[in-house]
Amino acid sequence: MKILVFTEKPFAPAAVKAIADTVNASGNELKLVEGGTREDFVEAIADADALIVRSDKVDRALLDHAKALKVIVRAGAGYDNIDLDAASERKICVMNTPGQNSNAVAELVFGMIVMMCRNQYNGKSGTELKDKSLGIYAYGQVGRNVARIAKGFGMKLEALDKFVDDAVMEADGIKPLHDVKELFANNDFVSLHIPATPETRNSIGYDLVMLMPENGVLVNTARKEVIDEAGLMKALEERPDLRYVSDIKPDAAEEFEHKFASRVFFTPKKMGAQTAEANFNAGVAAAEQSIAYLKDGWNKYQVNRF
Ligand code: 3PG
Which of 13, 36, 179, 286 is the most buried (most CB within 10 A)? Predict the structure, then answer.
């Protein structure tokens, strides 16, 4: 059967080779399209039995062309790029690959925090992370890796996640919180790891950001959609001590950069999962999961229902 890998942002070469080896060894056929156009996607998906993507948009109109598709695997965590309803209506299984790229994202959190605390390495005196407090918003795979690394820096930790028992956080030496206001009010740094859902979209704005202590830094390696950009901008205008670093450029990136200069930093392209290791882990997991689904319906990480 045909397994299509369609990625706007290519996997590292070693990951591509490992995906190809995995697919070939299974007796399936691999089609790889990197950096293709929408037309390329429409054409390539026509006879694909399985599809592997990253943040690439898989919408209803695209799925209309997918006559043979049985499974979509998002090589990564967030699947807000995939129209789950449209997939379910067509009885296409959608899976993600939880945990496979989470260390990479967590390491970037600290790459960006240190850069901001050292004034983007401009020679001016900065601040340290030791004994500062970090609030982790969502204690999933990325949040847990962030906690592990933060302990190495000697930070104090709190986390909020309504789907995780307090005992899990307490066992990791983290104070569980149940109110998002407390998370922002208590912590020098707040790191976002919530998915983009109808409930979380635009949920981080003026009221929460204004609660942050002096010199607070908001870190977003999750999704730009969870930020209320107008609210964040107003907070940064009123509080010249606050800073915002994000692995996802806001829609109003130019205005943020123009107004706040070195108090904001945005990666030019989402870089969190862009490491050789994360590409390898997520890519091979996606290939294995696609093969297993095509073979005997293995669906451990299915995120839709039909
Ligand atoms: C994820 O949800 O797994 C991350 O945001 C990584 O996305 P990417 O594969 O597009 O880099």
Answer: 286
